[in-house]
Amino acid sequence: MFDLDKWQEIFITINKNKLRTFLTVFGIGWGIFMIIILLGAGKGLQNGVERDFSAWATNSGFFWSRRTTISYGGFQPGRRITFTNKDTEMLRKKIEGLEYLAPRNQLSGFNEGNNVIYNNKTGNFSVYGDYPGYIRIQKVDIAKGRYLNDKDIADERKIAVIGRNVKDVLFEDEDPIGKYIKISGVNFQVVGVFDSRRTGEQADRDTQTIYLPFTTFQKAFNYGNRVGWYAYSVKPGYKVSDVEDDILGTLRTEHSIHPLDLDAIGSNNLEEEFKEVSGLFQGINIFTWFVGISTLLAGVIGVSNIMLIIVKERTKEIGIRKALGATPLSIISLIIQESIFLTSIGGYVALVIGVFIIEAIAKVVPDDGIMGAPEVDVKVAAGALGLLIIGGAIAGIMPARKAAAVSPIEAIRVD
């Protein structure tokens, strides 16, 4: 029940010791402020990383051919492994758990560009031969037209899906759909324009890309039945690492590679990378809470010490109250309420300031930076404030019990 007299006493006490009250409140507020700022910054960094990860299916991976390092089956080390269409069909039949298997080729090799011509304009871009399923692994947004489809593969159509930067360089404001571009002397009709889901340099690199049907690519550029490397995704309920092991083991058998020659085929597992990143941010959050709660604990101890001083200063007053009939419970209630009030004020003010700073930073963080917009979960912030209020109550228990134990006779003798 609200007791106006108690709250008048609390405010009178606070008003008498403004500096001490301010330092106590500041010590408590600093802990909440640290939690809000650190959680907000950590979430911003996590948002930036997850934004780039959103362009990839996390249940996917890649594998590519390299050279053998161990002699096996009559072959000397140093033999270059070459994947072919036969491997594609074999893996699709044998590997359980495969959702999409996307063989890939790149014209002129890795990180090499190619001159692409439209009328009197030319640009240097990456050219890939792909299957329609690849968009399920590296996700892009189709800005205009369409992506590759199964009919393009079956009919070996000479069509192309170009990135936004390709469109800007070759076509500027002109609509590219239906127009023809020339790649290494071969004409391809543009049927789609895509944009990247990533940001910054990664997005620029993605959108300087041209996708061609894989079968058309092999035929147009005399690649025969060669496959450069593979992207794949796995079905729900399967682990990428298990499917990856099956793929690599099958390929080692098929290409007479020593079972222990782990370097003959390279691989990359996005599921493991995503778990590592998630584990990193979980560790950051644990560290943030450790620092914040440690700071809060120091503040709570400070409040407890201040309340002990207050009780000592008000010993005579407490004794008189008890002599006039005040119960121990009312004395305890008074001290705990004051303790909770101090911690609540400090925590709330710090919470508001921290959220305001996070929101201000979020408005100026660039969209293409490594860090995304920082943010604070309202539930987390409210939980931190609730934890602080509980801490304030705990901080007041010892001083309150000391106050309740004051003897009226001894208290009246205090000078």
Itemize the secondary structure elements and their pairings.
Layout: H1 4-16, H2 18-53, E1 60-65, E2 83-84, H3 85-94, E3 98-106, E4 114-118, E5 121-130, E6 140-145, H4 150-155, E7 159-163, H5 164-170, E8 180-183, E9 186-196, H6 200-206, E10 209-213, H7 214-220, E11 226-227, E12 229-234, H8 240-254, E13 265-269, H9 270-313, H10 315-323, H11 328-364, H12 378-404, H13 408-413
Parallel strand pairs: 5-10, 7-9
Antiparallel strand pairs: 1-12, 1-13, 2-11, 3-5, 3-12, 4-5, 4-8, 6-9, 7-10, 8-9
Structure, described:
Helices cover 54% and strands 18% of the residues. The chain has helices at 4-16, 18-53, 85-94, 150-155, 164-170, 200-206, 214-220, 240-254, 270-313, 315-323, 328-364, 378-404, 408-413; strands at 60-65, 83-84, 98-106, 114-118, 121-130, 140-145, 159-163, 180-183, 186-196, 209-213, 226-227, 229-234, 265-269. The model has no long low-confidence stretch (mean pLDDT 84).
Strand arrangement in the largest pleated sheet: 4-5-10-7-9-8
Low-confidence residue ranges: none
Secondary-structure element sequence? HHEEHEEEEHEHEEHEHEEHEHHHHH
Based on DSSP secondary structure assignment, what is the total number of beta strands? 13
**Large-scale geometry:** elongated
Compact summary:
With 415 residues, the chain is of the alpha+beta class.
Write out key terms for the chains shown.
two-stranded antiparallel sheet; 13 helices; single chain; elongated; about 425 residues
